[in-house]
Design a protein that fits this description.
The chain is mainly α. It has helices spanning 12-15, 19-22, 28-52, 57-81, 85-89, 97-108, 110-129, 143-165, 169-192, 197-205, 214-217, 220-226, 231-241, 246-259, 271-277, 284-294, 296-325, 341-345, 352-385, 392-415, 418-421, 424-435, 437-454, 463-489.
Amino acid sequence: MVKEQLYPTPPEHLQRIGLRGLASWLGPGAIIASVTIGSGELVWASRSGAVFGYGMLWCFLYAGVFKGIQVYTAARHITLTGEHPLVGWARPRWLPILPLVIAVPAVGLMPIAFSAIPEMLGSFIRRLSDVELTNWAPGVWADEEFEVNAWTTIVMLVCLALALASNYKLIERVSAVVLALIVASVAIAAISLGPNLFEIASGLFVPRVDDFPTWITSNAEYQTEFSNRNPWLEVSLYLAAVGGGAFDYIGYVGMLREKKWGLAGHRVATRDELEEAVGDSKTSAETLRSAKLWTRAPLLDTLISFSIVILVTLLFAILGKLILNSNHVVPANNQLLVHQEQFLVALHPGLKWLYRTGVFLAFLGTLYGAYEVYQHTFVESVHAIVPQLDTPAWTRGLRLTTVSWCFIGGMMMIWLPSSAAGSIIERMTFGSIISGAGACGVWCFAMIWLDCVRLPGPLRMSWPLSCVTFVAGVVMTTLGVQTAIAYFSG
């Protein structure tokens, strides 16, 4: 028999939302935002502005909006049912196609993130320090490559120690302050430089993919990276930059269990229990009201975090156009973080130290947050495909396995010569093709299907939400297919 109250009573500040209460509903979305702010905004948004000017702003806007919709539908589902969408997608059990298609590549790609992201920071530190760790390098590595790998290893060890100690609170607070100062400075710089608002509007709302400008393809410094590169591969990077990829969102949804929103983290309700709870009984109206109130929590978390990510991304892209594009400079090769220093120096030369500190803290936060998110990604994926392993003992083992997989896999890719592992751009491009826009589009379609088969009518998505989810699925799948064609045909 169904209990009178299927859902916990929503807290008062969720029923009467005010400005003061908004911060309390910023949950796992804040972690997703912090994970992406390092590589997403600082690198890829700046690079887009440097290469294409305002021409790719639409990519960041649409990707941010559609991914926000994608994430909310999944977060809404676990809040209402207590069940991760991967579990729902695993039916029939004898052939869990969707979890295999989405989760397995996501897990396989984790070492790419844990090699490329720390390598960006290792290269940045090496250039700033101007300290030679050794004057010897084996023949398979160039001198600079060996030293970058050495600095990257130090970064990896620091982040591993933080992850194992789970003692990141101080760095997290300092990072928040420093990054807030950087964002404020970037906003002031963008406004003071007087961007062309008409061109910004055109870049935001008119999708187009231009060829690389001749000043890039004719420059010997950039020819290695851009001469044979399809512009659509840049699109794949930018689409993946905003808010992360499918592997991030599997973990994000799983982290909602710790927030205890709705049924998430409490219990899993069957379809029959949900039907009875919102049926014609006397308590159904109150149950339905509680359910809809609880969906506000993931909505606010998603709305706030993705709005911040989109805004900051657009600011860095605009400054990329105003400063880097104008000076014919591109974040490329092993200088993916160097040139963005000019964004803050444009306001005052002393702000270069704020930028350098911010980069270091942001990337530490990205890697630490990635350890946290990916543990949830791996655990939820294994539980969906092999439900027999959904026990406390196995879960602890799976979490440790995730940390080991990310660290050891990342270190292997870092120390493989670039001729074998590929450059940072090549690795990130491959990851964005496999688990980027295309996977996110499939996710949207899967959520529409799961909403229909798992939830009773009163709890299903409204028709406007279903429509925008469908549109998000169509757009992201189309872009994913287009970028994949460009990658595999090139």
